[in-house]
Specification:
Strand order of the largest sheet: 2-8-7-6-5-3-4
CATH topology of the largest domain: Aspartate Aminotransferase, domain 2
Radius of gyration: 21 Å
Largest sheet: 7 strands, mixed
Structural class: alpha/beta
CATH superfamily of the largest domain: Type I PLP-dependent aspartate aminotransferase-like (Major domain)
CATH class of the largest domain: Alpha Beta
Length: 400
């Protein structure tokens, strides 16, 4: 009899965390490493948000709170949904957790039974399938290839739905591809969902405010109001507000689901950090003026990276609509050998050789469910991105 739970046999450690850890280890050994694996802005948390946290400490707001969030934060979240998404929620329909990941996990743990299926478009954020497996469900993947801009079609969604489908887990703009669904593209998907009333929608809108150019963000319950009663809309302050370490995510949905999620959280972590909650109140309710200039920097970095990667032999990189990732194809690199003698059998071999031979750390595409690709986070300095892309080009030129 093994000591550890058999549940752990169904899941793996986060590949993005593994890449970041490996890069840090090599850097500690004195290697010149450029780490492009972590998905977090390099901007500092805005001063008004930091000041709100300091004030909360000074005011003694350091005690336990309600399990899934203080009333002031829930009210701010309701106001945000109305302001930004034309969605009306009451505080009783809101759950606040320790990051968006916990909110998603709570929802899956509260709803999945053995045999339940969750449809996940690929490429996907690495944690989605493992959270489904931990909850006892079965992930069902729908591949969105480069040729379709990494976005699934209505026909693909229709074909994936079965009597066992419980959730459609949706993310736009996407981690890892940065692909964003337009209103019409999302309407086509919601039309399918309207024909299958047993399927609920879990939408991860974490990159909502990181939308570029002509692309305008929209969310399923906004596009199709008739889905409101079976949609959990998930968001957080991590990305747009540069608050990854503050660990605040939130969701709004039907009250029975929110109550079930609260029960899960009450027996795991209880309330999120009190100080972080007060900071999040200011993030959502205070000035939003910094978002546009930050996005201008992200657009410049995106274009720098996309243009440089498309100049690399064997790489094809589309220009994403949002988030701060690119997800280039390395289809034409597979089967070749690196200058250091590594056979490029797949995207993991490519990423490993790239790190070992050039010191550039990226995340291989298989981690996101679609190969052969890799992901770069361009949420870092222009100089680091320029140098990294130059090393990638030299690496690709050395393939033979």
């Amino acid at each position: 009899m093994t000591f550890l739970s058999a549940t752990l046999d169904r899941v793996k450690q986060s590949p993005t965390i593994a890449v970041t850890t490996r890069a840090a280890e090599l850097k500690a050994q004195g290697r010149d490493i450029i780490a492009l694996g972590a998905g977090e802005p390099d901007f500092d948390t805005p001063d008004n948000i930091k000041a709100a946290a300091v004030q909360a400490i000074k005011d003694g707001k350091t005690k336990y709170t309600a399990v899934d969030g203080i009333a002031e934060l829930k009210q701010a979240i309701c106001a945000k949904f109305k302001r930004d998404n034309n969605l009306t929620y009451s505080p009783a329909q809101v759950s606040v957790g320790t990051g968006g990941k916990q909110v998603l996990y709570n929802a899956l743990m509260a709803t999945l039974n053995p045999g339940d299926e969750v449809i996940i478009p690929a490429p996907y954020w690495v944690s989605y399938p493992d959270m489904v497996l931990l909850g006892g469900g079965t992930p069902v993947f729908v591949e969105a290839q480069l040729e379709q801009d990494y976005k699934i079609t209505a026909a693909q969604l229709e074909a994936a739905i079965s009597p066992k489908t419980k959730w459609f887990l949706f993310n736009s703009p996407s981690n890892p591809s940065g692909a964003g669904y337009s209103w019409d593209e999302l309407q086509a998907l919601t039309d399918v969902l309207m024909r299958h009333p047993h399927v609920w929608v879990m939408t991860d809108d974490m990159y909502e405010h990181l939308a570029y150019g002509a692309f305008t963000f929209c969310t399923p319950a906004e596009v199709e109001p008739a889905l409101y009663d079976r949609t959990l809309t998930v968001n957080g302050v991590s990305k747009a507000y540069a608050m990854t370490g503050w660990r605040i995510g939130y969701a709004a949905g039907p009250e029975p689901l929110i109550r079930a999620m609260r029960k899960v959280q009450s027996q795991s972590t209880s309330n999120p950090c009190t100080i972080s909650q007060w900071a999040a109140v200011e993030a959502l309710s205070g000035t939003q003026e910094f978002i546009a200039p930050n996005n201008d920097m992200f657009i410049r970095r995106r274009d720098l990276v996309v243009d440089a990667l498309n100049d690399c032999p064997g790489i094809s990189c589309p220009r994403p609509q949002g988030a701060f990732y690119v997800y280039p194809s390395i289809r034409d690199c597979i089967g070749k050998t690196s200058a250091g003698g590594t056979q490029i059998t797949d995207d993991e071999a490519f990423a490993t050789a790239l790190l070992d031979e050039t010191g550039v750390a990226v995340v291989f595409g298989a981690a996101f469910g679609l190969s052969p690709h890799f992901r770069i986070s361009y949420a870092t300095s222009d100089s680091a991105l320029t140098e990294a892309c130059a090393r990638i080009k030299t690496f690709c030129e050395g393939l033979h």
